Amino acid sequence: MNIKPSALLAAWFLLLGLSACDPNQVFEKNIDLKDTAGQPYVWVVQEKPTFEFNITDTTQRYDVYFNVRNASSYGYYNLYMKHTLTAPNGQVLSTLLHQMLLMDPKTGEPRGKGAGDIFDHAFLALPAQQFHQAGTYKITLEQYMRQDALPGIMSVGVRVAKKATAE
Questions:
Q1: According to the model, what pLDDT value does residue 4 have?
Q2: How far apart are CA 92 and CA 102, in angstroms?
Q3: Could you tell me the pLDDT band of residue 9, with boundaries at 50, 70 and 90?
């Protein structure tokens, strides 16, 4: 079997790229929002995605991000979303309403990363969060717009990462 050196090098870079993930990341999960009544990408007010993640190091501070993927057809420049953070013992630690700007309010230009008509956003929602007990935490997200069925939101998610130390 004769393999070209360039093919070996390309395969090595591919493997290196696949193994190079963020060492500070503790958890990340996104949930696609289902089609509702024949309309794709609709976040109905009754749908409250819940994310569970495990914390083992209680001395560490963590940054908690909310991920949002939207279509360019989304009808607003912002998204109001409420979170509820629950500790392993069932105690509610925080409930907060967040306003996330998906588009520039003046120009209507999409924010976030994307191309075509799909845009991804990562909003730092809970910076330098400290979790005081080890175990499984829950974050529940709710859309808090004045509309029962909110078209144009494709998925939502949560990312938890160890806060990088300033050097």
A1: 47
A2: 28
A3: very low
Q: Which of 113, 87, 111 is nearest to 99 (CA)?
A: 111
Secondary structure class of 120 (helix, strand, coil): strand
Q: Which amino acid, 47?
A: E
pLDDT tens-digit map of 54-96? 999 999 999 999 999 999 889 999 999 999 999 999 999 999 9
pLDDT band at 164 (very low <50, low <70, confident <90, very high): confident
Q: Could you give the 3-state DSSP secondary structure of residue 57?
A: coil
DSSP states of 75-117: S-SEEEEEEEEE-TTS-EEEEEEEEEESB-TTT-PBPSEEETT
Cα–Cα distances (Å) from 86 to 7, 65, 99, 140, in that order, read 49, 16, 21, 8
Sequence ranges of the domains in the chain = 24-162
Torsion sign (Cα): 85, 162, 30, 101: positive
Radius of gyration of the chain (CA): 19
Burial of 163 (0-12, 13-18, 19+ CB in 10 A): middle
What would the CATH number be for the domain defined by 24-162?
Answer: 2.60.120.380
Helical segments of the chain, H only: 5-19
